[in-house]
Amino acid sequence: MTWPRLVLRNLLRHPLRTLFTTLSIALSIFLVCAVLTLPGALAAIFERQSSNTRISVHHKAGLTYWLPYAFVRKVRSVPGVAAVNHYSWFGGIYDEPKNLFPNFAMDPETAAQVWPDYGIEPAALERFRKTRNGAVVGEQTMRKFDWRIGQEITLRGTIFPVDLTLEIVGVIPEASGNPVVLWFNRVYLEEAMEPRGGLRFVGMLWVRADRPEHVDRVMQTIADLFRNSEAEVAAETEQAFLTSWFSSFQGFIRVILAVGFLVVGAVVLIAANTSAMGVRERIPEIAVLKSLGFRRRPILLALMAESTLQASIGGVAGAAAAYGILGALRTAGKTGGGMPFLGPLANFQMSPQVAAEGVAIAVVVGLVAGAVPAWNGARLNVVEALRRLF
Amino acid sequence: MAIPLAYNVRNLFVRRWTTAFTMGGIALVVAATMLLAALVGGLQRMLVSTGEPDNLVVLRKGATSDGSSMLPRDAVQALRTLTGVARGPDGEPLASPEIVNQPFVRTTSGNRENVLVRGVEPVALRVHRAVRIVEGRLFRPKLGEVVAGRGAFQRYVPGGLGSRIEFGRRRWTVVGVFDSGGTAFDSEIWADVRDVQDDTRRTGYSGVRLQVAPADREVVIRRVAADGRFTLEAKPEQSYYREQAETANSLYILVLTLAVVMATGAVFGALNTMFAAVSARTAEIGTLRALGFARGTILVSFLTESLLLAAGGLGSGVALAALAVWAVNTLLSGVQFSMMTFSVATVLLRLTPGGALLGLVLAAAIGVLGGIFPAWQAAHLRVVDALHRA
Amino acid sequence: MIEVRDVSRFYTRGVDVVHALERVTLTIPGGRFVALMGPSGSGKSTLLNLLAGLDRPDAGEVVVAGQALSALDEDGLAAWRARHVGFVFQFYNLLPVLTALENVELPLLLTPLPRAERRRRAEIALAAVGIPDRAHHRPQQLSGGEQQRAAIARAIVTDPDLIVADEPTGDLDAKSAVAILNLLKELNRAFEKTIVMVTHDHRAEPFVDLVLRLDKGVLVNGAGAPA
């Protein structure tokens, strides 16, 4: 009879109880993983979307303030700048208002230079440059509306009084970290706006520095360039920009995290409860073991091993379930459907890191929940325990 | 005759740690659920209560919110003179042209957030009847003066009434505070419409709000849609905000799902506790059966014990949730939430009867499901075997 | 008053079939203090369980005070036990969370008596067994002998026709054991209660009217043989 086998046998002694405890831990870890995905998704967005040389340039007052189109040329001539693209929120609606997704007018010519890390196929980019009403679309949006390359779609304008018919010429892969957005050629919008006064502004600029070391200098130069001009700008790294953008979700995320915290608390209580019950019931046994000469430490370790093993299995099961179910939901396009404000967060991609965190929490719970009753059990006075036997 | 309740209560007390842990687990599940429901409740209250029954919102056709809509100047004129629009006692048409902007504003803690600034004319106060100036006064035209909703005032105006805040291209003086009864407007800053147009270098408007007698509502809506010069759409203000609340509704589904998953975990915990109780009290159960207590009586007794656990968990859970809601609302002044407009609104958590009911149902379900199987087992023990397990 | 006709009872333990009782027939007249004795595994406890309506025979018939127990279903047996049988166990089987008085009161909850009346009878029963001052103590606070007395009080409080006792002195020291046997005898004499006691305590023999011996599930000394 080896210690591992003893531990296993003990767990199987009350199969139903072990099953219930493991299931409740699995369920709780499933929840914890789902909840942890939010901040994890945020971090992932920053890591994937931000190349360390990309800089956002927008009007200091806010994103609803236009920048003059002439700024594009000026920024291009700043030393250290490898490429510049412009970005203007069109806000077009496809079919129904609730299908809102981000769509921007921008410059197909420099798309590849500013976003080389997005991994868009060169052939697609070529088509994008050549087709005046061409559009590249994020993979998730393609899936959501069941669009195909070559298909024509119409976006109804809201801030702009024009409707645009675009031809899908390419896909922005999911791996880019920005799988929802749609890009089209600004020139097409300009032409459509001609009879209504034209378009002389852009929403913001995206700039790529030639080297990471030059980023700070480039940002400073751009800011200085337009100081005291008609439109003062703020230049910041893509990471800073995204952080700021999502800080408004912080409160919401904090509530969700608080819930996750409560759930973990509930898990610990349940696991501790079960563990304590198990130990209490086995006090006579432990007394016999001790009277037979077994020392305290092995008994304690065996008890803790039991509760930790149980919790770990539950943790792995819960994390795996979360991964599988969230993944399935995402593939089916179900996540984020009703929550467009979440934007890229709606991806709900559960990272392996979150899974690891979930399992780690389970293991800690098992250790903690096993520790106290195990300590009490192992410390037991033999005579007293034996007396309880008879 | 039933087994006295004292039997159950005292037994719960005797195994006090187990009882405490199980109740604690249930309490956390109830609290977490009610907290999430309170977030949704606060959102819904804010959105659903916003909107006058007599008002129509006129936006560009297909726009999802006034932040993403654009109306030209002559459209506003046409709407002002539209038949069916109510008039004030002085003959002024109760039509409020508005322009919505989302500049960056710094919070008292130094974060940068999108805030909704609404450029209005004084007639806005007559059209938005729920809005009342409670401190200071309304702004005077073209002087860069603003009034802030209660929530916005707390968050963005550390200097208090009369101080200046900075957003857009200039500084503004806060001359008043308004209260809108907990609706979405409380998170907004209102300024003179021409000041906002100047600041954003725009000549158009976002939308117009009309006060229309209920009898004329349908007619006006049709007239607005039929006007071929512009592509506009009018809808009742309450419907407009209710549609924004759809986001909250999809959140409610999330809350329900989380609640069910958490509760299932708690059920397993309760099951463990009750099965252990039955196991420990087998001799007692045998004695009761021997004495002549019917199986049904024993079942009810153990089920009651499980329900007592659940009741204790419910009570503590509600208290915990109430404390958390108070803490968030008072110490953090609510939760920041971004809606369709991407600007930040402060949502006060609100414990709803629906949330409390949900908590009650959860606790009851946990009590019943966690108790019925062990109770059934207790009731159907073989008396002879049970007695001999003494 | 108790008739056992050709009763058999067996159990399966894994692959073995244990014949606990093999075609036992006996009669116990009312008002007698009877001991069921025999070595371990002789079936005496099994027989006691059948007489008390706690178990059913696989074959044969048990009739107690005119009631054929086989005619009653599970709930019927429970109700019958409540009215007609009092139990005394080796390990007392008092509910630890109830006081002595509340324990004694327990069987009365199955009757329509009002609360005040239940209390009164329980107090009388406790006095009858000699521990009126222990009424509000919990079992943990009583000695073994006192606990058994409380259990006996519980057994008589409903005024049953039959009292069954399973090794009532098994857990007691010599002095307490004798005291309990005396008490049982007193109850038998004073109130003409039929008492059937399973025991392997030889000290019990002088106290009883009748000894029935069992061995390997079979009655050894015939029905009705005097001690």
Secondary structure class of chain A reads alpha+beta
Shape of chain C: globular
Total strands of chain A = 11
CATH topology of chain C: Rossmann fold
Poorly predicted runs of 5 or more residues of chain C = none
Backbone CA Rg of chain C: 17 Å
Q: Percent range for helical residues of chain A?
A: 40-55%
Strand content of chain C: 25-35%
Number of strands of chain C: 10
Range of helix content of chain C:
25-40%
Give the H and E element order of chain A.
Answer: HHEEHEEHHEHEEEHEEHEHHHHHH
| Most extensive chain interface and residues per partner | A-B, 60 and 72 residues
CATH architecture of chain C: 3-Layer(aba) Sandwich
Straight-line distance between termini of chain C: 19 Å
Instruction: Summarize the main sheet of chain C.
Output: 6 strands, mixed
Task: Please describe the biggest sheet of chain A, giving its number of strands, its sense, and whether it closes into a barrel.
Answer: 9 strands, mixed
The number of distinct helices of chain A, counting runs of at least 4 residues, comes to 14
CATH superfamily of chain C: P-loop containing nucleotide triphosphate hydrolases
Oligomer: heterotrimer
